[in-house]
Amino acid sequence: MAANNLPILALTAGEPSGIGPDLCVQIAQQVMPCHLVVIADRELLYERAQSLQLPLMISDAQFLMTTNPQAGHLYVQHVPLKEAVKPGTLNSNNASYVLETLKAAVNGCQKGVFDAIVTAPVHKGVINDAGISFTGHTEFLAELTASQVVMMLVGGHMRVTLATTHLPLKEVAAAITAECLISKLRIIHHDLITRFAVEKPCIAVTGLNPHAGETGHMGREEIDIIIPALNQLRDEGMNLLGPLPADTLFNPSQLKNYDCIFAMYHDQGLPVLKHASFGGGVNVTLGLPIIRTSVDHGTALELAGTGQASPGSLQAAIEMAIQLAKIKANTSGDK
């Protein structure tokens, strides 16, 4: 944390032909209660600022000062693009650039230069088109830090975590094992306490099947896998509800009873949250040795360079990273 007690956040600009660079320029127009270091190609940011007709002054990140942040000013850790960028047009030759920005952010966080990482959206398809196996930010950061992680989305007065993330639906049931559920619920429980300062977390767990299996008539995963895993963790002292039918546990009258929801797969948990908070939701990666938050949307190629992209989710991700960094500083005594 900087001498003026403001956290220092690394912000990766994401896919260069998408709205990530736009969002970085837009967020620079505000005075945020933190020091932002954007990890990107500086010329790309200048070009996007010109397209958006927004003022932008860039300073090298190595000269980061402890004075108060200023509107229209960004500190940038320069990572050069491989090829020039046309807004809205993907180029697989820049895929390695995207991953280099992420590696630089993680490296800075591990060295204590940054208090947290905030990521703008990347495009999974173009990275894979470049011959690089990539399933998402969450999995890539887990590999970089040798961590087991859990994806959490925060928004609409909900925290939703996932047992499985970017899998084809036909592969989900096989991926729901007792080992998977137990290890991920332990991470969620731990991070709710240490990262979010929830003293005694209550976690609501969905079933995999409709109506949570209907006592085995719509599938036995609840009986054979989920319930035994939850009972083991209850014996360890965790407060777990479920397995509950996913079509009713998101009822607004019930949400106040949970600190977090644990859904079995991506499109079971996230559509509800994104309906309630799209454009203001935040992706948080649990289980990492560092703090990472992200936007809740994609690269929106058609909006790149137009000025029509909303920075709302990025602002929320930055605010969440600030909050988590302050909780960490307070609990570690690094005030």
Name a few traits of the molecule.
single chain, 335 residues, alpha/beta, Isopropylmalate Dehydrogenase, 2 domains, 12-stranded mixed sheet, 18% strand
CATH class of the largest domain: Alpha Beta
Helix content: 25-40%
SS summary, helix count? 12
- At the fourth level of CATH, the homologous superfamily of the largest domain is Isopropylmalate Dehydrogenase
Q: What Rg is obtained from the alpha carbons, in whole angstroms?
A: 20 Å
Biggest β-sheet description: 12 strands, mixed
Question: Would you identify the CATH architecture of the largest domain?
Answer: 3-Layer(aba) Sandwich
Task: Report the β-strand fraction as a percent range.
Answer: 15-25%
**Could you please say which CATH topology of the largest domain applies here?**
Isopropylmalate Dehydrogenase
Secondary structure category: alpha/beta
Series of secondary-structure elements, N-terminal to C-terminal: EHEHEEHEHHEEHHEHEHHEHEEH
The overall pLDDT average reads: 94
Query: Termini, distance in Å?
Result: 8 Å
**Which regions contain 5 or more consecutive residues with pLDDT less than 50?**
none
* Quantity of strands, as a count: 12
**Total discrete domains:** 2
Can you offer a commentary on this structure?
This protein is α/β, with parallel strands linked by helices. The chain has 2 domains: 1-147 and 288-335, Isopropylmalate Dehydrogenase (3-Layer(aba) Sandwich); 148-279, Isopropylmalate Dehydrogenase (3-Layer(aba) Sandwich), CATH 3.40.718.10. It contains 12 helices and 12 strands. The chain has helices at 20-27, 42-52, 95-110, 124-129, 137-145, 172-175, 178-194, 221-235, 246-249, 252-255, 266-277, 312-332, and strands at 8-12, 35-40, 57-60, 73-78, 116-119, 150-155, 158-162, 202-206, 239-244, 260-263, 282-286, 292-295. It has a 12-stranded mixed sheet with strand order 3-4-2-1-5-12-11-6-7-10-8-9, sandwiched between helices. The protein is globular, with a radius of gyration of 20 Å.
